[in-house]
Each structure stands twice: as C-alpha cells, then as structure tokens.
Prior knowledge:
The complex is a heterodimer. Chain A is an alpha/beta fold. Chain A contains 20 helices and 9 strands.
Amino acid sequence: MEKKILSFARYLRKAGIPVAVPEIMDALRGVQLVGFSKKRFKTVLKSTLIKEEIDVLVFDKLFELYFERQYSPDSEKQPDKIDSAKSELFLNKVFGHEGKGLGANVRGAIRSRLALAVYSVNREEMQKLACEAVEKTTPFKQEDLHDFDELLYQVKAAVEWFMFIFYLEVRKEKGAIEEEEYFICKENLVSLEKMMKELLEKEIISQMGEEGLRQILDYQNLRRKEFSRIKESDQEKIKRQIVKLGKKIATRKGRRKRPGLKGQTDLRNTVRKCVKTGGVPIRLSSKDRIIDEPDLLVLCDVSGSVARFSTFMLLLVYSLQDRYRHVRSFLFIDLLTEVTDYFKNCDPQRAIKEAMEKAPVSDTNNSDYGRVFFRFAAQYMHLVNPRTVVLVLGDAKNNWRSDERLAFKEIAHNARRVFWLNPQPRETWNTRDSVMGAYAPYCDQVMECRNFEQLLEVTKKILI
Amino acid sequence: MFESIDDVLIKLKENKYLADESLATVLFLAYQLPKPLLVEGPAGVGKTELAKVVADILNARLIRLQCYEGLDESRALYEWNYQQQLLKIQSDSGEKKSWQKTKGNIFTEEFLLKRPILETLMSRDPVVLLVDELDKSDAEFESFLLEALSDFQVSIPEIGTVKAQRIPFVVLTSNGTREFDDALKRRCLHLYIDYPDFERELAILNLKVPDLSGSLANQLTVFVQNLRSFPLKKAPGISETLDWARTMIILGSSCLETDLVEKTLPVLLKYQQDINKVEKKISSLFSGAE
Lengths: 464, 290
C-alpha cells in the first residue's frame, strides 16, 4: 500500500502539483491512523496532499483511476423492465414518420439500439454500446490524445448519439414525446456518457500506458489546460485563483510600514529608542512606506482568439494594482480604446465584463497590431516614460496586414521595460499571419502564456 | 481527547457542531499527527466556530489571534513594556544601582507583554490557538508564523528560548482571498469547508435553534439554499441563516411570506446591491426544494 501511495504522489507531482516528502509522510501516517475505510482514505490523502482548490479536480480524477476503478454494473439498482411493446411505441414516437411507422433503415440502425437502451434503462446494453463505440474509435492517434473532448465526440458519433438527440428534441417540441420520457432519456444519456468516458480512459491507459494516464490527468488539470479550452464552469475557479495570486503579490512587499525619513511619528519606536538614553527621547523615529512603484501600461488584444486570456490577465493586473503607481489599460482589436476608467472604484471582474461589452475596439473584427501601435504612438506617447512597464497581450496575428515596427520601437525605447505575452504555442509564432518576429526584438522578453502554470511563471518573472 | 473519527463526530455533535465525515477525519488527523489545521472556506460557514468547539471539547483555553494588515511580531508574539521599564529606571535612579543590576531588573517577565503566540507557548494548561483570517495578514508575518509553528518555540534575546510546554492545537482560518506560501501550506493539513447542502443546513438549524417550527425551518433552508445559487457579492453563510431563524422567532412569525422576507432581508445579505437584486425576485426563491 505504501508503494501505491508513493506512486500516487509521484503522479500528482507529474501533474504539476507540488507534493513534498513531509506531506507524503503525513499521508502515510494518516492512513495508518485512520485505516482503510474508502471514503476516509480519500479524505486523508486529500487533506494531506492537496492544499489548493484548483488541484482538486486532478486529485479526484487520479484517485478514481487509481483506487476506485472497479465499475460494477450489478451494484446499480435495476429498475423495472419496460415491456417491449411500450418501448416499440417509444421508438415509433422518436423516429417514426408521421404515423407511417418505422422505416426499414431505422429498425436495425444503431440509433434505435441507443434509444431503446436509454429509454428502458438497460445498463447492460448501455455498457455494451459504450464498449463497441470505444472499440470503433481505436486505435488512438498520438495527436488526438491531447483533445479528450474530440475523442469523446467520436465515440458518441459512433452510436449515432447526435442523431438521437436531434430526433428527441424535435419530437419533444412537437409534443410527440412526453415530458417524463424525455427526461428519462436525458438522464440516462448522461450516465451513458459517463460510461463512455470511463471506458475511453481505461482504453487510453491500457494502450498508451503512463503517457496516456498523463494525458488524461493533464486534461483535468486546470493548471495546464489552455485558457481557450477551459470550460465555463471551471473559469470561476481560475478567476478565484488569479485574484488570490494577485493579492499574494500585492502584499508581498512593504504593505507594512517600515522606518522612513518622513511620515507619521512612530511613538512606540521612539519610546523604545529612548530607553537607551535613560528616558530622554533624543531621536524621533517615524514610519512611512517606501516602495518602488512603477507605472503599468497594459495593451490587450480582445479578438476572439485571445479574449479569454486577456480577461484573466486583466484580472490579475487589477487585483495587484496596489503594487503600481498607476495602471492604465487599453483594449484593442483594430481600434485602440482606453478602458482605465471602467476600473475606477469598481470590482475588477465586473469592470472587465463591462469594458469588453461597451468599449469600441473594432472596425472590422480582425486584429491589426500595426494600426494599433501606430495610433498608440501618435496619441498616447506621453504616457510612456522611463517609469513605465508596458505589457502587451496578444497572439500577434496581424491578418496579413502591414506591421508598424517603427512605432513599436519608439514605444519600447521610451518605456522602462516591454513584455509581450503570447497565448499561442511557440511553434506557431511567425508562421502564417503571425508577425511576432517583427516586434520581438524590441521587447525585453516575449513569453508564451497559455495556461495557468505558465501564467504563474510569467507573473514570477515580470510582475514581482 | 479524540480517540477515533466516530468519537470526533459524536463529540462535535454533543457540542452542537454538525460536521460531515471528511471534516471529522481531517480534524482527527490534525489532532493525532499533530499538525496545524488550515481551514479555508467562504465567510460564515463555521470556521472560527470549529476552533471554539474544539477548545471546548479538549477542555482547553482558546487563545485567539485576529490577523489584520500590518500585524507584526510585537503584536503577535511579545513586546517589552517600555513605559513601565522607563518608570522603573527613573524610580531606581536615586539608588545608584549598577547597570548590570538595572538590566537584570527591567528585562524580566514582569515587563514582558505576552501576545497570543507567546502566551500559547508558555501556557501550562492545554491550549487551542486560533489564528483567525490569516489571509488578511501580510507575507512577512506568514513566514514569522511559520517559524513559530514548525518548532513551537521562539527565542527572546534577553531571556532565551521559550519552548512550548505542550504542543498546542493550532487552527488557522482563511477566507481564501490570498494564496499562502507553499512552505506554510506544507506544514498544515488542509480543510475546505463549503456551504452545507440542504439536509445538513436543515439539521444545523434544528440543532442550533430548537424553538423553530419544523415547517418554517424547512422554508428558511430552501430559501437560503436557493439564494446561494444567485450571483451575489456575498452569499449568506450558516451564521446568517441562524441569525435569520432567530429573527423569525423574535418576530413570532410562523410562516415565510414575501413582505416578511423583504423586511428581514438585511439579516441575510450585507450589501445593498445584493438586497436590491434579490428583492425583485423573492417569490421565485420560495419554491423548488432540493
């Protein structure tokens, strides 16, 4: 068992979750104390190894794959069998042509089997369907592995899932299917999907071994998931984490008052010092904050491909704005607009939403970095001075328009530092319409920033 | 004493704290290992309450250290009572004592102002140390705390090292507004308390406010549970639900009605924006139990 826990921890580490040796020791001792009751065992591991909400998804998945995966269909309660006449009727209702009964091509088709299995809650048949479907999609190609959703889509397509859904929706609309029947189907489709997922995962692991396991974990891992692929429901988690990160950095340095030359008199310190001189306060001490505060200027591309990344980054910037003297932010697609005012006295999350909706950022909806930099140099150059740090967020895809490297060079020349964060994979820079190469020489650093893990790295490097 | 997880569950319940299995497991571990317990979760789900209850169960004194921005060692650990030292020096000044003697006189426990952490370490009786809302303090304090908590000893230059008489049970709470250092997280057991589900909240309500009639308790819980699914600035915690229930008892109402809710909404929601948002939709929040 110890071995198993150790290798479990190893996988967690591979997924980018920091697990230190003392924590594993805690886990081992904890397991000894608590014993092997299944639910408690999980709690012990979770509380000793996982310290961050964002990592819970990976933990749950790995735990499931590692310790729990003995799916037993018998344990499920078998509901009453629905007699065949009734299910035949249902089939008619879903696929039949207006009173003409079933077409010959429907009767034997896999979608009828799917409909029947789902309608009559036949778990065996569902399991069988899932198995067959997964078999059809194997063997997996290496490049498919990183996109689990796509694989699942293929599996579903193999049982004519989408066709069934389509008919189901249409017939329900028309009133041919009763509400209750509809919901039974929907509910069981969800559990069928779960079966498919599990089978698919099992298959991937048995075929690809450790590599496959890693891929599945990565898919669950919010730290490594590309921003553009993160589900709506998980976005909140990332946002919370970003705000936390921002607060951490913002309090990192000198929010506490340190001794300074001027400012408020620090009575405690003054009295403490005069103990040395027999109670005569000779030296007055004072406290003041002395922090180096640069100005931050953020230019965000908010075109479709980058919008989500920009949202996250803006959120980060504004949750640590205490660290900066001024933060000014601009949004653009091919039109540059200052949105700093949206953030005044306002919750950053709301401000971002409002700014994204209201600010005029586009004429043509295609990004044009050249035009934007040109405008910036002409209009806002007075904002850039040797105290300014300029942060550009964008994929540098210029839609085949001309670049304005001179304008950018001028901006870079005036600024203290220029950083460019690109949410596209590094390999694709300078291919197709990406003009990263034109601007890169003038930046202090150009970094790839596609997921939370990289965002952490970047933050460490440039914002602290 | 906690002997087993079931023991923890029973004892918590005796003290009117309803916990789920995972909470009890982690608490048991923290007690046995022994490790500081880092409790995170939204405001008002009973994080601080947990520490108080544990102190009660263990028959220990609860020492509370409330964190705030700018909290430093002199507020958390110890400080010399400078004013009193000055007085001592001045009153001694007639006697022409040697410096050595004076020094020995003024740096004694008499002039030491013990702050919560030192108090914890020096205590001879069992102690539960509650470091409340750690996320409000700053990073320097965090690393200082780390030092104190890992060895349970601190050194005071004038006196020497103070080592804990017995290892205290430490609970750190956080609302999760700030991320902590890895080193601190590593030394703690992590517990996340979320809003309770319907059954548990109802059970808590029945346990804590026994005067409340069953049907009203049911209604209140449904309402609050529905309210939490709203996008609010601050969703109501359990403590707000309890306050609300007590309000109902004081008002002597037996059934939840729209205008009653409207009047008492400020008990649940603490932001005017939230109240405005909810006011319009009160009736829709009554139904849809579970």
